[in-house]
Specification:
Layout lengths: L1 E3 L9 H19 L1 H7 L9 H10 L2 E4 L2 E4 L14 E6 L3 E7 L9 E9 L5 E4 L12 E7 L8 E10 L4 E2 L3 E7 L1
Antiparallel strand pairs: 1-3, 2-3, 4-5, 5-8, 6-7, 6-9, 9-10, 9-11
Length: about 180
Amino acid sequence: MRGKAQSIKNPRSELQMENRGKFGIISDLMSKALSVVNDGFKAVSVKKSPFNTAVQVNMKSITESGGELIMSEAKFSYGKLLAPQAGNFSMSDTTLTATVESLGESFEGSKVYLVCVFFDSQNRTLMVIPKSAPVVSSESSINFQVIIPDNLAFDTVRAYAFSFDDASKDASPTTYIGELSA
């Protein structure tokens, strides 16, 4: 994801303008995934909202290069549970199927979220989060299916997953599943 620092009335310094640009990129991205972020950062949010914690954690992933702010990765969760060990995904004409494998017994009873980020040729993004967060049973993998809108033009899609345990309020770290090209 890319962004350009906007002109600010009365800027204090170049660093302040850069930080304002970073904050805008992160808060825009995290607000699109608010329900996911609220679960993903609930356990580690002390004296601030899960959203504000997510913004703080993700500010470190933005760098400045040639006057542009570039975000190299996004974390939608931050927690203590073990992350899924493997995953893969594939795409048909209208459906993206992601499989999170090797969840293990420690994930039984946990919800697993999938976050798909679509990038077009200008590095603009669209985030797709399936409405359901399946609960892990004794099966060793979970399949997600995301219906891709017919008019969606994109170059790549990256998929991430994490789990959330309602009882302990812990989330696993975000796990990168993989990337596909259109």
